[in-house]
Design goal:
By secondary structure, the protein is an alpha/beta fold. The protein is built from five helices and 38 strands.
Protein backbone atom coordinates (compact mmCIF):
# COMPACT_ATOMS: atom_id res chain seq x y z
CA UNK A 1 0.00 0.00 0.00
CA UNK A 2 1.36 3.44 -0.90
CA UNK A 3 2.05 5.79 1.99
CA UNK A 4 -0.19 8.54 0.63
CA UNK A 5 -3.01 6.00 0.35
CA UNK A 6 -2.50 5.06 4.00
CA UNK A 7 -2.68 8.74 4.96
CA UNK A 8 -5.93 9.12 3.04
CA UNK A 9 -7.47 6.14 4.85
CA UNK A 10 -6.36 7.46 8.24
CA UNK A 11 -7.79 10.87 7.44
CA UNK A 12 -11.15 9.26 6.65
CA UNK A 13 -11.10 7.62 10.09
CA UNK A 14 -11.12 11.08 11.66
CA UNK A 15 -8.20 10.29 13.97
CA UNK A 16 -6.82 13.78 14.31
CA UNK A 17 -7.73 17.19 12.91
CA UNK A 18 -4.09 18.32 12.92
CA UNK A 19 -2.47 15.72 10.66
CA UNK A 20 0.53 16.90 8.67
CA UNK A 21 2.96 15.00 6.45
CA UNK A 22 5.63 15.30 3.80
CA UNK A 23 3.68 14.86 0.59
CA UNK A 24 6.74 14.43 -1.61
CA UNK A 25 7.66 11.01 -0.20
CA UNK A 26 5.36 8.14 -1.17
CA UNK A 27 6.99 4.71 -0.58
CA UNK A 28 5.23 1.40 -1.08
CA UNK A 29 4.74 -0.29 2.30
CA UNK A 30 3.99 -3.93 3.03
CA UNK A 31 3.33 -3.84 6.77
CA UNK A 32 3.94 -2.35 10.21
CA UNK A 33 6.57 -3.01 12.88
CA UNK A 34 8.14 -1.67 16.07
CA UNK A 35 10.66 1.14 15.62
CA UNK A 36 13.62 -1.08 16.56
CA UNK A 37 12.75 -3.98 14.24
CA UNK A 38 11.12 -2.29 11.22
CA UNK A 39 12.65 -2.85 7.80
CA UNK A 40 12.72 -0.62 4.73
CA UNK A 41 9.23 -1.51 3.53
CA UNK A 42 7.43 -1.05 6.83
CA UNK A 43 5.65 1.67 8.78
CA UNK A 44 6.44 2.37 12.44
CA UNK A 45 5.86 5.15 14.99
CA UNK A 46 7.61 7.18 17.66
CA UNK A 47 5.92 8.35 20.83
CA UNK A 48 7.71 9.66 23.91
CA UNK A 49 11.16 11.15 24.35
CA UNK A 50 12.81 7.81 25.20
CA UNK A 51 12.27 6.67 21.59
CA UNK A 52 13.42 9.87 19.87
CA UNK A 53 16.98 8.60 19.49
CA UNK A 54 15.71 5.60 17.50
CA UNK A 55 15.02 7.92 14.58
CA UNK A 56 18.76 8.02 13.85
CA UNK A 57 19.05 4.23 13.40
CA UNK A 58 15.64 2.86 12.42
CA UNK A 59 15.28 1.13 9.07
CA UNK A 60 11.58 2.00 8.83
CA UNK A 61 10.60 3.49 5.47
CA UNK A 62 7.80 5.58 6.97
CA UNK A 63 6.99 6.86 10.46
CA UNK A 64 4.13 8.28 12.47
CA UNK A 65 5.63 11.11 14.53
CA UNK A 66 4.50 13.53 17.22
CA UNK A 67 4.03 17.18 16.25
CA UNK A 68 7.74 17.97 16.66
CA UNK A 69 9.44 19.95 13.83
CA UNK A 70 12.90 18.75 14.86
CA UNK A 71 11.91 15.09 14.49
CA UNK A 72 10.24 15.85 11.17
CA UNK A 73 13.43 17.51 9.88
CA UNK A 74 15.48 14.50 10.97
CA UNK A 75 13.12 12.21 9.10
CA UNK A 76 13.43 14.38 5.97
CA UNK A 77 17.22 14.25 6.20
CA UNK A 78 17.12 10.45 6.33
CA UNK A 79 14.61 10.22 3.48
CA UNK A 80 11.92 8.71 5.72
CA UNK A 81 8.31 9.45 4.86
CA UNK A 82 6.32 10.70 7.83
CA UNK A 83 2.96 11.78 9.12
CA UNK A 84 2.68 13.85 12.31
CA UNK A 85 -0.13 13.78 14.84
CA UNK A 86 -0.82 14.61 18.46
CA UNK A 87 -1.60 10.92 19.08
CA UNK A 88 1.04 8.75 17.34
CA UNK A 89 0.16 5.53 19.15
CA UNK A 90 -3.54 5.84 18.36
CA UNK A 91 -2.83 6.55 14.70
CA UNK A 92 -0.45 3.55 14.55
CA UNK A 93 -3.15 1.35 16.08
CA UNK A 94 -5.50 2.40 13.29
CA UNK A 95 -2.77 1.90 10.69
CA UNK A 96 -2.32 -1.73 11.80
CA UNK A 97 -5.93 -2.38 10.83
CA UNK A 98 -5.10 -1.39 7.23
CA UNK A 99 -2.69 -4.35 7.00
CA UNK A 100 -4.22 -6.92 9.35
CA UNK A 101 -7.75 -8.24 9.79
CA UNK A 102 -8.55 -10.69 12.59
CA UNK A 103 -10.00 -14.02 11.52
CA UNK A 104 -13.71 -13.64 10.87
CA UNK A 105 -15.52 -16.94 10.37
CA UNK A 106 -18.30 -17.13 7.85
CA UNK A 107 -21.85 -17.31 9.22
CA UNK A 108 -23.13 -20.82 9.72
CA UNK A 109 -23.75 -23.49 12.31
CA UNK A 110 -21.39 -26.46 12.49
CA UNK A 111 -23.03 -29.87 12.43
CA UNK A 112 -21.31 -30.79 15.70
CA UNK A 113 -22.76 -27.81 17.61
CA UNK A 114 -25.40 -28.67 20.24
CA UNK A 115 -28.26 -26.16 20.36
CA UNK A 116 -31.38 -26.49 22.48
CA UNK A 117 -34.53 -26.06 20.37
CA UNK A 118 -35.77 -23.28 22.70
CA UNK A 119 -32.72 -21.10 21.93
CA UNK A 120 -33.25 -18.04 19.71
CA UNK A 121 -30.47 -17.50 17.17
CA UNK A 122 -30.14 -14.23 15.25
CA UNK A 123 -29.16 -13.65 11.63
CA UNK A 124 -25.67 -14.29 10.21
CA UNK A 125 -24.46 -16.05 13.37
CA UNK A 126 -21.43 -18.34 13.41
CA UNK A 127 -21.47 -21.31 15.82
CA UNK A 128 -18.44 -23.57 15.83
CA UNK A 129 -17.98 -27.27 16.44
CA UNK A 130 -18.92 -28.63 19.88
CA UNK A 131 -20.32 -25.33 21.08
CA UNK A 132 -23.20 -25.97 23.51
CA UNK A 133 -26.15 -23.56 23.70
CA UNK A 134 -28.70 -24.49 26.34
CA UNK A 135 -32.37 -23.71 26.91
CA UNK A 136 -33.92 -20.28 26.33
CA UNK A 137 -30.66 -18.62 25.29
CA UNK A 138 -31.01 -15.54 23.06
CA UNK A 139 -28.21 -14.85 20.55
CA UNK A 140 -28.18 -11.55 18.63
CA UNK A 141 -27.31 -10.97 14.99
CA UNK A 142 -23.77 -11.58 13.67
CA UNK A 143 -22.55 -13.11 16.92
CA UNK A 144 -19.51 -15.42 16.58
CA UNK A 145 -19.41 -18.43 18.93
CA UNK A 146 -16.17 -20.36 18.47
CA UNK A 147 -15.68 -24.10 19.09
CA UNK A 148 -16.17 -25.52 22.60
CA UNK A 149 -18.00 -22.48 23.99
CA UNK A 150 -20.64 -23.35 26.59
CA UNK A 151 -23.65 -21.08 27.13
CA UNK A 152 -25.93 -21.96 30.06
CA UNK A 153 -29.73 -21.45 30.14
CA UNK A 154 -31.43 -18.04 30.01
CA UNK A 155 -28.32 -16.18 28.78
CA UNK A 156 -28.74 -13.17 26.49
CA UNK A 157 -25.97 -12.09 24.09
CA UNK A 158 -26.12 -8.89 22.02
CA UNK A 159 -25.31 -8.36 18.36
CA UNK A 160 -21.75 -8.56 16.98
CA UNK A 161 -20.30 -10.08 20.14
CA UNK A 162 -17.46 -12.63 19.86
CA UNK A 163 -17.04 -15.61 22.19
CA UNK A 164 -13.70 -17.35 21.74
CA UNK A 165 -13.05 -21.05 22.26
CA UNK A 166 -13.53 -22.60 25.70
CA UNK A 167 -15.17 -19.53 27.19
CA UNK A 168 -18.17 -20.24 29.43
CA UNK A 169 -21.24 -18.07 29.93
CA UNK A 170 -23.19 -19.30 32.93
CA UNK A 171 -26.85 -18.79 33.80
CA UNK A 172 -28.21 -15.33 34.68
CA UNK A 173 -25.68 -13.59 32.43
CA UNK A 174 -26.49 -10.77 30.05
CA UNK A 175 -23.85 -9.70 27.54
CA UNK A 176 -24.30 -6.57 25.43
CA UNK A 177 -23.46 -5.81 21.81
CA UNK A 178 -19.91 -5.65 20.42
CA UNK A 179 -18.38 -7.45 23.40
CA UNK A 180 -15.37 -9.77 23.19
CA UNK A 181 -14.96 -12.73 25.55
CA UNK A 182 -11.55 -14.33 25.10
CA UNK A 183 -10.60 -17.99 25.45
CA UNK A 184 -11.09 -19.60 28.84
CA UNK A 185 -12.99 -16.68 30.41
CA UNK A 186 -15.96 -17.48 32.64
CA UNK A 187 -18.84 -15.03 32.92
CA UNK A 188 -21.46 -15.50 35.62
CA UNK A 189 -19.81 -18.21 37.71
CA UNK A 190 -20.98 -18.58 41.31
CA UNK A 191 -19.58 -15.92 43.62
CA UNK A 192 -17.55 -17.05 46.64
CA UNK A 193 -20.40 -16.97 49.16
CA UNK A 194 -20.21 -19.06 52.33
CA UNK A 195 -21.56 -18.40 55.82
CA UNK A 196 -19.51 -19.68 58.80
CA UNK A 197 -21.38 -21.94 61.23
CA UNK A 198 -20.41 -24.05 64.22
CA UNK A 199 -20.20 -27.10 61.99
CA UNK A 200 -18.49 -25.55 58.96
CA UNK A 201 -19.29 -23.36 55.98
CA UNK A 202 -22.88 -23.04 54.77
CA UNK A 203 -23.08 -22.36 51.04
CA UNK A 204 -25.04 -19.24 50.07
CA UNK A 205 -26.66 -19.76 46.69
CA UNK A 206 -25.73 -17.11 44.14
CA UNK A 207 -29.06 -16.12 42.60
CA UNK A 208 -28.06 -12.74 41.14
CA UNK A 209 -27.16 -11.61 37.63
CA UNK A 210 -23.99 -10.78 35.73
CA UNK A 211 -24.28 -7.93 33.22
CA UNK A 212 -21.70 -6.82 30.67
CA UNK A 213 -22.74 -3.67 28.84
CA UNK A 214 -21.91 -2.89 25.19
CA UNK A 215 -18.30 -2.90 24.07
CA UNK A 216 -16.83 -4.73 27.08
CA UNK A 217 -13.78 -6.95 26.47
CA UNK A 218 -12.78 -9.75 28.85
CA UNK A 219 -9.30 -11.30 28.63
CA UNK A 220 -8.32 -14.97 28.62
CA UNK A 221 -9.04 -16.97 31.78
CA UNK A 222 -10.66 -14.05 33.58
CA UNK A 223 -13.70 -14.60 35.82
CA UNK A 224 -16.66 -12.31 36.46
CA UNK A 225 -18.79 -13.79 39.24
CA UNK A 226 -22.51 -13.47 39.89
CA UNK A 227 -23.72 -12.43 43.37
CA UNK A 228 -26.12 -13.97 45.85
CA UNK A 229 -28.61 -11.20 45.08
CA UNK A 230 -28.58 -8.15 42.83
CA UNK A 231 -26.01 -7.97 40.05
CA UNK A 232 -22.37 -7.81 39.08
CA UNK A 233 -22.07 -5.17 36.35
CA UNK A 234 -19.29 -4.04 34.01
CA UNK A 235 -20.26 -0.88 32.17
CA UNK A 236 -19.67 -0.01 28.53
CA UNK A 237 -16.26 -0.03 26.85
CA UNK A 238 -14.36 -1.29 29.89
CA UNK A 239 -11.53 -3.74 29.11
CA UNK A 240 -10.07 -6.51 31.27
CA UNK A 241 -6.74 -8.22 30.64
CA UNK A 242 -6.03 -11.91 31.26
CA UNK A 243 -6.43 -13.62 34.67
CA UNK A 244 -8.60 -10.91 36.23
CA UNK A 245 -10.98 -11.84 39.06
CA UNK A 246 -14.11 -9.72 39.49
CA UNK A 247 -15.89 -10.79 42.66
CA UNK A 248 -19.62 -11.09 43.22
CA UNK A 249 -21.61 -7.87 43.38
CA UNK A 250 -18.89 -5.62 41.93
CA UNK A 251 -19.73 -2.62 39.77
CA UNK A 252 -17.09 -1.43 37.31
CA UNK A 253 -17.69 1.84 35.49
CA UNK A 254 -17.28 2.80 31.83
CA UNK A 255 -13.95 3.11 30.01
CA UNK A 256 -11.91 1.42 32.73
CA UNK A 257 -8.78 -0.64 31.97
CA UNK A 258 -7.81 -3.47 34.31
CA UNK A 259 -4.47 -5.21 33.77
CA UNK A 260 -3.56 -8.85 34.29
CA UNK A 261 -3.93 -10.64 37.64
CA UNK A 262 -6.01 -7.94 39.30
CA UNK A 263 -8.36 -9.23 41.98
CA UNK A 264 -11.50 -7.41 43.12
CA UNK A 265 -13.18 -8.79 46.23
CA UNK A 266 -16.94 -8.82 46.58
CA UNK A 267 -18.95 -5.62 46.42
CA UNK A 268 -16.19 -3.38 45.05
CA UNK A 269 -17.25 -0.24 43.17
CA UNK A 270 -14.90 1.10 40.51
CA UNK A 271 -16.07 4.37 38.97
CA UNK A 272 -15.53 5.50 35.34
CA UNK A 273 -12.11 5.90 33.67
CA UNK A 274 -10.13 4.04 36.35
CA UNK A 275 -6.83 2.28 35.52
CA UNK A 276 -5.74 -0.68 37.66
CA UNK A 277 -2.18 -1.92 37.10
CA UNK A 278 -1.14 -5.58 37.10
CA UNK A 279 -1.66 -7.61 40.30
CA UNK A 280 -3.59 -4.90 42.12
CA UNK A 281 -5.76 -6.26 44.92
CA UNK A 282 -8.89 -4.46 46.15
CA UNK A 283 -10.52 -5.40 49.45
CA UNK A 284 -14.19 -6.12 50.05
CA UNK A 285 -16.74 -3.28 49.59
CA UNK A 286 -14.09 -0.66 48.63
CA UNK A 287 -15.00 2.28 46.35
CA UNK A 288 -12.41 3.64 43.88
CA UNK A 289 -13.23 7.11 42.60
CA UNK A 290 -13.49 8.26 38.99
CA UNK A 291 -10.24 8.72 37.05
CA UNK A 292 -8.04 7.03 39.67
CA UNK A 293 -4.83 5.22 38.68
CA UNK A 294 -3.67 2.37 40.93
CA UNK A 295 -0.12 1.30 40.11
CA UNK A 296 0.96 -2.34 39.80
CA UNK A 297 0.98 -4.65 42.83
CA UNK A 298 -0.78 -2.15 45.07
CA UNK A 299 -3.25 -3.23 47.72
CA UNK A 300 -6.33 -1.04 48.15
CA UNK A 301 -7.81 -1.37 51.64
CA UNK A 302 -9.77 1.89 51.95
CA UNK A 303 -11.98 4.06 49.74
CA UNK A 304 -10.07 6.19 47.21
CA UNK A 305 -11.09 9.70 46.21
CA UNK A 306 -11.47 10.51 42.48
CA UNK A 307 -8.51 11.50 40.33
CA UNK A 308 -5.65 10.19 42.49
CA UNK A 309 -2.65 8.07 41.55
CA UNK A 310 -1.97 5.63 44.36
CA UNK A 311 0.78 3.12 45.09
CA UNK A 312 1.78 0.56 47.70
CA UNK A 313 0.17 -1.74 50.25
CA UNK A 314 -1.85 -0.29 51.81
CA UNK A 315 -2.07 2.05 48.84
CA UNK A 316 -1.72 5.80 49.29
CA UNK A 317 -0.88 8.73 46.96
CA UNK A 318 2.05 7.86 44.67
CA UNK A 319 3.81 11.17 45.26
CA UNK A 320 3.92 10.52 49.01
CA UNK A 321 4.92 6.89 48.39
CA UNK A 322 7.95 7.95 46.32
CA UNK A 323 9.08 10.36 49.04
CA UNK A 324 8.69 7.67 51.70
CA UNK A 325 10.50 5.09 49.60
CA UNK A 326 13.42 7.48 49.05
CA UNK A 327 13.80 7.67 52.83
CA UNK A 328 13.30 3.93 53.25
CA UNK A 329 16.22 3.17 50.91
CA UNK A 330 18.46 5.33 53.10
CA UNK A 331 17.43 3.67 56.39
CA UNK A 332 20.72 1.75 56.88
CA UNK A 333 22.69 4.98 56.36
CA UNK A 334 20.31 6.97 58.59
CA UNK A 335 20.50 4.30 61.30
CA UNK A 336 24.31 4.31 61.18
CA UNK A 337 24.29 8.09 61.66
CA UNK A 338 21.79 7.72 64.51
CA UNK A 339 24.03 5.20 66.31
CA UNK A 340 27.02 7.51 65.90
CA UNK A 341 25.09 10.46 67.37
CA UNK A 342 23.80 8.32 70.23
CA UNK A 343 27.35 7.20 70.99
CA UNK A 344 28.58 10.81 71.01
CA UNK A 345 25.75 11.88 73.30
CA UNK A 346 26.49 9.01 75.66
CA UNK A 347 30.09 10.25 76.07
CA UNK A 348 29.02 13.75 77.12
Amino acid sequence: MEFQEIIAHLGELGTDNSLSHNRENNPLLSGVAAIQSADNNQLSYIEGAKFFSALATTKARALILPQDPELQNQANERGIAWIATSQPRLLFAKAIALFYRPHQPQPGIHAAAIIDPTATIGAEVYIGAYAVIQANVTIGDRVAIHPHVTIYPEVKIGADTILYSNSTIQERSQIGANCVIHAGAVIGAEGFGFVPTATGWHKMEQSGYTVLEDGVEIGCNSCVDRPAVGETRIKQKTVLDNFVQVGHGCTIGSNCAIAAQVGLAGGVTVEDNVLLGGQVGVANQIKIGKGTIVTAQSGVTHNIKPGLMITGTPAYPSRDFRKSYAIFKRLPEIYAEFKKLRSLLAKQ
